[in-house]
Write a structure and sequence with these properties.
Shape: globular
Number of strands: 4
Strand order of the largest sheet: 2-1-4-3
Largest sheet: 4 strands, mixed
Number of helices: 1
Radius of gyration: 13 Å
Distance between the termini: 40 Å
Amino acid sequence: MRVQEGRMDRKSGEVTPGSALEKGLGNEAFQNIPTDGIKAMLLTDSKNEKIAQIQVLRAGSKKAN
């Protein structure tokens, strides 16, 4: 199973895969989950039987107006 960062395009809603997370599910992103949680997308195999990939969606930076 691949565990990596993902980026969501706010206009199109598409998620593009980013770099792999070191240590997979043991990564700091899963060890220090904030009280409001984290967003992630789970992708399954072609038979929808197993999780093939997890993309952790990190908060993007907001531009000042």
